Each structure stands twice: as C-alpha cells, then as structure tokens.
Amino acid sequence: MTERIALANLPTPLQPADRLSEAWGGPRIWIKRDDLTGFGLSGNKVRKIEYHAAAARSAGATTLITTGAVQSNHCRATAFAAAQLGFKCHLLLRTADGLKPKHALGNHLLHRLSGATIDYITPDQYLDRDTRMEAAATALRDSGEVGWVIPEGASDYLGMLGFAAAGHELAAQISELASPPAVWHASMSGGTTAGLALAAAEAEDTFTVIGTSVGDTKAQILARLETIWVEARRHRKLPDSLHAELVDAYIGGGYAVISDDELACQLEATRLTGLLFDPVYTGKAMFALREEIRSGGLDGFDDVVFWHTGGGFGVFAHDFSAVVT
C-alpha cells in the first residue's frame, strides 16, 4: 500500500447549496468543501501532496521542488506542507515577464511567508518546467541536499492516489442519494480528474466525473490524463480507459483571463452560499456550472456535486471593482 502523511482535515463536508439551486434551477447543487482541508493547506492539492511528502521522506529528501503560476494554489500548499513537515521548499513560479512581482498578494504572499526559495520564470521557460525542476534537484544534490520533484499540480500517479481516496470519501457521503450525481470540478493539470475517475470505476460508477477546463483545450487535458493513466497502469490493475467527461466550452479568454461576466457569476455564487470562489479555478468552474445548467447539459441528473477545490487566497489578488458595488 502506498504511504501517505496525513496533513488534511478529512473527510471534508458535503453540503447542500439550496439557495444556489433555487436560483439556477436544474439539478440540486451540493458542494464538496475541500476549501476546508486546512488553512494554509486549503484546497484539493494537499490530498495529493500527502502522498508525495511520504515518498519524499522515504527517499531521504530534504527539499520539495515544484512549479506553477505565481498565484498557484498547489505551490502554496506544497510550501506550507514543507514548513509543517521540516522540508525545505523550492518553487519555480511563472510570471508574465519572469520577474519577481512588485507586490506580494494572495497565494504569492503566502509562498514568500512560508520561507520557500523562489525562481521566477517566463511563460516560454515554463514550457521547459520539468527539465528546470530536475536541474534544481541536480544543483541541490551537488550541495549535499536531496530534492524531491513534484510535477505541476502534483498530477501524476502519486497525486492521482490522493484523489482516488477523495472519490471514495465522496462515494460514502452520497450513498443515500436517489441516483448517481455528476461531480463537477475545475480541470487543468489532470490529477484531480484522473483520481476521481479511478474512484468512480472502483466504486462501480456511483457518480459521473465531469471536469471543466479553466484554460486548456479538451484535447490538451485528455493528453495529460492519458499520461497519468498509463503511469498508473504500471502500478495497479485499471480499466483500459478512464471514466470521465471533459468540457472545454467555458474557457473564455484562457487560463487566468477572467471576464466581467465570470466575475459577476462568482459574486452571485458567493452571495448565495457565503463561500469564496477564486477567479482562476473555482469561480470559473462555477460560471461553467451555471452555463451548463442553463443549456440543459445536466438535465439527466437529479444532483450535481461541485467540488470546491479551494483557492480562496486568490480572491485577494484580483480586482473586483468592475462587479462589486
């Protein structure tokens, strides 16, 4: 059995969002509260990091190395997990110009408060992120340290296991629903979707997995999912293909590009639930959910579970003046 280090507050609650359901119509909306996995560790990423941290400790690693955008939830959670467990942390953060931002806001403030060391890289350099992380691990080895590389979003076999466990957690919580719900979630690096798909298969399809892209095309995300699935099949017996649907109709302007309509929907959801949704992930996924309900795309379901993947700190790095009165 693959080891994990317990970091998250689990199980996270599954709560009805009845005011949201009444306002939007369609299936009854439930919210899986992974924004409650812990404060600094808040969100879905810590579920994946639990498995990577255990593997890093077993390998004698001294430093966790990972990468993401400057407002990365994953990097923030990794940095705080490292601080909690006694690892050092090194982050490769993508900015528009490869320079350190003038102001530390949202997740990036927490990256810096955690004590992580940071390299800032351009979008073009980010295309070569895996090689750059391996180079960082080599540099550490040359200085007597041992680095453990965690891929973007912790989206690999180990990270997938964290969300397979999450899917089984959900399966127990929905056992009294009259029919299998849809599980709607933001999808990008693929680990969350792959893990939920594995759980859906092992739980005999007690729910339908639907990932909505927050930036990339369906084809790009499917390619990542296939890579994770192939890796997973080297470790355990799995179906030939994963059980998940992907939607890329609500990408809008692309990753981290947020329209006023999307912000207004996010604001509406906050005022109907009392929960925070970040513009890049959960807010965009909530907008996609509303539009999918309006289009009739979820008419075959009595219930839909919105997986709240956290990201509340990102709210404090965005300008809401266009929609907040």
Write the layout of secondary structure elements.
Layout: E1 14-16, H1 18-24, E2 28-33, H2 45-58, E3 63-69, H3 73-85, E4 88-94, H4 106-113, E5 117-121, H5 123-126, H6 129-142, E6 147-149, H7 157-173, E7 182-187, H8 191-202, E8 208-213, H9 218-233, E9 245-247, H10 260-273, H11 282-295, E10 303-308
Parallel strand pairs: 2-10, 3-4, 3-6, 4-5, 7-8, 7-10, 8-9
Antiparallel strand pairs: 1-2
Helix pairs in contact: 2-3, 2-7, 3-4, 7-8, 10-11
Care to describe what's here?
The protein is α/β, with parallel strands linked by helices and 325 residues long. The longest helix is centred in the middle third of the chain and has 17 residues. Strands 1-2-10-7-8-9 form a 6-stranded mixed beta sheet, with helices on both faces. Strands 5-4-3-6 form a 4-stranded parallel beta sheet, sandwiched between helices. The chain has 2 domains: 193 residues, Rossmann fold, CATH 3.40.50; 110 residues, Rossmann fold (3-Layer(aba) Sandwich).
